[in-house]
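Annotated sample (chain length 595).
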Amino acid sequence: MQRPAGSEVSAPTAPGTPVRPASLYFTTFLGLLVAFGTLLSPVPHLLESSFGWAGISSKGSWALTESILKLAVGAVIVGIVVLVERRPLSSLGLRNPTWSDFGLGLALLLAIMIVEGVYTTVLRILFPRGMSNVAVEQLKFFLQMPLGLWLIAALAAGFVEEIVERGFALGRFAEISGSLALAAGVALALSVVAHVPFWGWRYAVLILPAELLFVLTYIWQRNIIPNIIAHTLMDSLPLAARFASLAAVALLGVTRVDVALGSLKYYQGDYKGAAEEYGRALEAKPHDPELLRYRADAESADRNYVAVLIDLDEILARNPKDVDTLIARSDAYLAMNNYDRAQADADRAVALAPQDAETYSMRAYVLDHRGKLDDAIADLGRAIKYSRAKRADLYYRRGFAEAEKDDYDHAIDDLNEALKLAPDDRDTIWKRAGAYRDKKQYDRAIEDLTRVIEIEPNNASAYDERGDIHGQRGEYRLELEDYRKAADLSPDNSVIANALAWILSTCPDDKLRDGKLALKYANQACNLSSWLEWQVIDTLAAAYAEAGNYSEAVVWEQRAIDMAKTASAQDQKDLRDRLDLFKQGKPFRDRKAPQ
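Output written by the structure step:
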């Protein structure tokens, strides 16, 4: 008989089963610590690094790490329930699966897809900047993952996440609080927050309805099996779509299987494998220009440019006026730093198709690499003129070139146009921030860098650059906060460590200086730069001075002077002035004291 909706989530202990007097609070805390503590621990990083040292790809290492940790967490949770609490697995909602469970799982998956589709559409209408292009890089990462590892990761996630987040967390909180609604809310919050470290907070907001449906389904059925089925299938949908498309093109005769396999491997990031599949297809049609281009694209992605040129030369030998192939060969020559041949092919493409945006776009790349910014800007203007639709990349590239020429007004205009077309493009926002900074429009520069950080919360360079702008404005506390965040995110970056050590040593605000901490980061910067950069040695000297050790400050400042023979006259003067200060037993203070 089905239980009433208001009953507790956990299944009752089987009659006659002895219950160990283990504290429910302790076992709940222990289980959640094991389940969610790994997100903040160094274990995932160490395990992933170990796989990397063993020669496994970054994506494979990540998938194996996630799968092993999840399965380990699931085993610990089951062990706590069975061995410590002495409860049956049914207390986690686990039971023998049935066909009705499978049907309910499919229905739950369909409901999630419909609700998520509507919810995502509404969010993107209401918040077009904040909720568009969410977790794009993470999704690309998954699309390039080996199929077998993807399947393992999906199975591990579907099984363990449902047991932990629904079967264990929801059931235990219901017992502790006596409130099913409160337990559901806590379990929902935990499951959403667990996605933030990898996927970001915006993705966590997007999956809220799916997580809610998982919670409600478990409360309704007291059975975790439909949830596991729906969760696993949801994570496997892109994988299933690949196989379906491959089967369709083969059955319908749209293209050969080896060509389809080549395309599949290409989009997985297996460029060498893609080139091999296209090579098999070429055995039957050795001069097919389309197959040669496919293989050349894969070889180019694999940076095998000699092979690229062989395939493209084969096409052009039969059709010297193939504009697309000329553009592709120009790109290959550009990648090989053969600018003369790259421009010759681009010039030829322009002559053959003088109203084709791609020809001017390609030549602009070559001209930019040759330092001919005016000519590159002119070609990008022609590409914009002849493009069938407005393209963000063309406006971005022209704005970038204009900024390089210190033409900030035109650069900002073009970058604004690019952002109208691609509002969340990080590179464009960042470049506009640089243009605003150079125009000394610091408020707008900080606003743009803050937007970059919203898009990429772990971008250390964005914090570093924003900190530098805060320093130029005399906002030293904000400068220090940004440098500290940057150093936490990128502990192996000597530039960031040096910047943090400098402000800790030389900040005019007495409350923010810390000589001991400055020495730590200055030594870190010196080690990371192999003690070869005079700017970093100069910072070490300033840190010793702030710590009150002027004899060491003098030694290291003199060392910086000896290393800076090729520095500008002003830099050498500044170094000598600091040396004089340290000899007098005085620290150095950079910029003005706060008002």
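Annotation: DSSP finds 30 helices and no strands in the chain.
Annotation: The radius of gyration is 30 Å.
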